[in-house]
Each structure stands twice: as structure tokens, then as C-alpha cells.
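Milestone 3.1: sequence recovery, worked example.
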């Protein structure tokens, strides 16, 4: 009979917990640093796609390396040279250009961790985001695709060349900000004070020889209220077979991640808030009856908590926020987009070819600042949908109208503006004009539950 671990009134099979915890570790050991730096470049071996157990154990050969003693034998510069030497020897970049989708064994966990960090960073299009330890720059490219001003930062110049080639090989879609590629000397980030909105760090922080110094640099370059998001392994990382293998054979620092120590250092560096994510990976799957029990708050919810807690032993996902007032939320995000509309048509019936005219009163009744029509993504404009007489949609966004003249200006929360609009009439017939607002490339206000104004018109 397999050994079972007791968890209160519930008994969980040890093998199940082993599989769950191993999957969590996969996110770290198949994460950006390890797959970027230490997998076989041409055809990853089976060994490069396996992951350690949930019980840290010595490496197969040699004595257990104490990471504290290991750190006495290396410097920042040594680790920088190690990273560059790895990337410089690569002849085939296919594996690195395919990340994180090279193999289905590691992809779900990498994608899941990336998604959680993205959510915690509270990103908005146009933000400047540093991809710290960018490696082959797959995360940087995705940030660019989402409209961020991505800065790929790595200690290896060759890694950044691989990243530049990735952008050329898989160009982003649409008009997006150009990325920057910046070499990091391991000490100072070559960016001005308070110049970036967010920092993304995926499985890189535990490789740092000088985390206190790096946290000070992160705080320095972040704008007030800025956030740095991390996905890292846990407090017993250095003792896993994979970590022991890396330190012994490649002289790579595989440090343990102790949140208490990080938070203490982060506070000294100017961060004022920490938040840690609790997540269940892989997907917690239930049968139908257990699912119904879970949804009703039954015993299945307790088992979920127990399994999640076991999985979280070797994964730390956390967010550090710098002190100072963060910019007010704006219309690049959906949250806080609300408005009230009042429309007065000059005439409900006009001759074909004559414009429909109306005076519209718009009030920003939400919590987000509205960007002007020249802003691109997040620009808020009045729009008019064209419907037939029965209310069936004919043309969504039939006309658009800036809320303020010229290049426009922002509209604050609670502010009211009045605008006169001229709408080109459709062909002869009866129609309904539906007045709405749009935050460009973000959302129609009506799709967020905002009330529209519908008026019947006739074209004679």
C-alpha cells in the first residue's frame, strides 16, 4: 500500500502530491533562465525536460553543495561570464526562439506563471516594462505585442542578439512600440531614475549574487507607485538535484528564495508593499460530484486548499510596489470606464444627403481618467452605432466624434463636456441611432454595462 500523508480529516496520496509539486517546480526549472541557458541547444534531451521531486535530495554524484559556501567562490562578474559563455556557444537558436512552447511538458506551467505575473503587474498599453533577465526575449516580445514599451535586460549580449533575431523571425502584429535591448553589468541598470512603470522577473532573481543591490536598482528606476513582479522557486531550491547539477557543472548560482529576507531588503530599497500569489498548478481537476461539492463549499474546498498549499512549497510569486503616488487609472484599462449621456437631435427627419446634427452632453461618471482622441490605445470618443428600425445592428461604430477640439485633452473624473456632432446620413429609410462611447482598442462602454441612448431617425 502506498504511504499516505494525513492532512486533518482528509488523507491525500503522497504520489499525487509529488506529481503536483513536481509540476510547480517545472515552472522554475523549465523557466526562462534554465531553458535559456542550460538546455541542449539543438535538440533538448529527455533529461532537460524532467523535473526534480518535491523532496530536495543530493545530486547523484558528489557531496551536497551548500549554496552559502558556493556563493563564497563566485562573483557577479563570474556569473555574468558564465551566462555569456553559454549563449555565445549556441549554433542553433530554434529551441530558444520557440520558448515557452518548445515542449508540452513545461509549457502549461510557464504560461500559467507568466499569466499570473501579468495579472499582478496591472499592465496598461503604453507602459514601459523592463523584462529583467530577458534571456531569449520571448516575454519581451509578448509584452511588445500587448502594446508595452518593452526593455529586454540581460547580462549576456549574445542573449539579446538572440532576442533581436526573435523579433525579426516572428514580427509582432500591428503598430507597436519598438523594443529596447539593454546589457546589464550585474550592478547598475543603465536607465534614469523613475523611468519605468513595471519590472517583470521570471525565474531570474534566485540567480542573483547581489539581490540587495539589484532591489535598490529596481526601486530606483521604477516610477512612484510602480510594481515589480516575480515568479521564482521556493526556500529549498538549492538542494534539488537540478540545482545541484547546475551549480556543480555550470557554476550557476541556484539560491533559495526566502520571502522574509527579500521583503526586508525591499523595504530598505524603497518598496512599501508586498503581495504574494496563491495558486494551484497544475489544473485542479474534479469529478462531477466533487465539483458540485466544491461549488457548494463542501469538503472538496478543503482538499483544494491542502493540495494548493503542498504545491506552493516550491513556488513563490510576489509583487513589490514602490512608494509614492501611482498615476490615476486611465482609459487604457477597462476598470472604471463609466459615463452618462444626454442627446438632443436637431431633427429626427432629414433629407438624403443632409447631415444629422445633435448636441451631446457627456459626463465621466467613472473612476478612470479619459485620454484624448489623439492618444491611440485608450482614446475615448463618442460613437454612434447604426441600427435598422427594428433595432438590428447594421454598422457598429458608424461614426466617431472627439470629445474635445483640436488635439484634445484628458477628461477628469466627474467632468462634463458638451459637443455638437454632425453625422453623415445613410440611404433613405428609417433607422435607429445608438449613441455610445468607446475607449479605442479597449472596449465599447456599452459592453461594460454602460447605458446608451437610442433615437429613431428617418432619412427622406
Amino acid at each position: 500500500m502506498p504511504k499516505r500523508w494525513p492532512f486533518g480529516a482528509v488523507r491525500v496520496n503522497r504520489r499525487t502530491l509529488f506529481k503536483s509539486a513536481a509540476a510547480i517546480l517545472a515552472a522554475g526549472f523549465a523557466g526562462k533562465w534554465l531553458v535559456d541557458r542550460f538546455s541542449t541547444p539543438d535538440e533538448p534531451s529527455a533529461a532537460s525536460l524532467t523535473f526534480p521531486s518535491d523532496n530536495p535530495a543530493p545530486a547523484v554524484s558528489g557531496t551536497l553543495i551548500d549554496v552559502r559556501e558556493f556563493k563564497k567562490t563566485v562573483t557577479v562578474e563570474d556569473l555574468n561570464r558564465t551566462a555569456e559563455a553559454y549563449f555565445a556557444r549556441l549554433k542553433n537558436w530554434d529551441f530558444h526562439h520557440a520558448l515557452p512552447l518548445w515542449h508540452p511538458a513545461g509549457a502549461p506551467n510557464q504560461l500559467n506563471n507568466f499569466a499570473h505575473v501579468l495579472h499582478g503587474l496591472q499592465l496598461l498599453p503604453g507602459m514601459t516594462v523592463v523584462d529583467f533577465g530577458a534571456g531569449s526575449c520571448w516575454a519581451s516580445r509578448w509584452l511588445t505585442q500587448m502594446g508595452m514599451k518593452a526593455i529586454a535586460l540581460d547580462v549576456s549580449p549574445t542573449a539579446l542578439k538572440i532576442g533581436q533575431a526573435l523579433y525579426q523571425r516572428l514580427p509582432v502584429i500591428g503598430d507597436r512600440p519598438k523594443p529596447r535591448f539593454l546589457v546589464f553589468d550585474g550592478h547598475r541598470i543603465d536607465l534614469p531614475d523613475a523611468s519605468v512603470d513595471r519590472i517583470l522577473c521570471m525565474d531570474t532573481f534566485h540567480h542573483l549574487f547581489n539581490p540587495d543591490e539589484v532591489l535598490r536598482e529596481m526601486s530606483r528606476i521604477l516610477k512612484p507607485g510602480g510594481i515589480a513582479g516575480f515568479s521564482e522557486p521556493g526556500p529549498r531550491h538549492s538542494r534539488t538535484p537540478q540545482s545541484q547539477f547546475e551549480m556543480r557543472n555550470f557554476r550557476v548560482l541556484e539560491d533559495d528564495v526566502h520571502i522574509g529576507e527579500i521583503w526586508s531588503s525591499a523595504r530598505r530599497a524603497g518598496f512599501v508593499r508586498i503581495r504574494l500569489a496563491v495558486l494551484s498548478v497544475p489544473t485542479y481537476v474534479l469529478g462531477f460530484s466533487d465539483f458540485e461539492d466544491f461549488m457548494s463549499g463542501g469538503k472538496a474546498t478543503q482538499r483544494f486548499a491542502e493540495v494548493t498549499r503542498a504545491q506552493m512549497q516550491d513556488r513563490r510569486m510576489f509583487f513589490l510596489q514602490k512608494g509614492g503616488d501611482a498615476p490615476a487609472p486611465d482609459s487604457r484599462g477597462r476598470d472604471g470606464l463609466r459615463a452618462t449621456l444626454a442627446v438632443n437631435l436637431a431633427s429626427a427627419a432629414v433629407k438624403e444627403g443632409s447631415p444629422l446634427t445633435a448636441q451631446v452632453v457627456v459626463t465621466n461618471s467613472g473612476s478612470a481618467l479619459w485620454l484624448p482622441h489623439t492618444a491611440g490605445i485608450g482614446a475615448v470618443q463618442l460613437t454612434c452605432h447604426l441600427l435598422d428600425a427594428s433595432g438590428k445592428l447594421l454598422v457598429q461604430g458608424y461614426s466617431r466624434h472627439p470629445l474635445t477640439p483640436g488635439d484634445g485633452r484628458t477628461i477628469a473624473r466627474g467632468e462634463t463636456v458638451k459637443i455638437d456632432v454632425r453625422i453623415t446620413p445613410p440611404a433613405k429609410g428609417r433607422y435607429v441611432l445608438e449613441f455610445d462611447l468607446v475607449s479605442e482598442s479597449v472596449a465599447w462602454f456599452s459592453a461594460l454595462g454602460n447605458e446608451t441612448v437610442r433615437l429613431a431617425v428617418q432619412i427622406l
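The mean pLDDT is 87. Residues 4-322 form a domain with the Rossmann fold fold (CATH 3.40.50.150).
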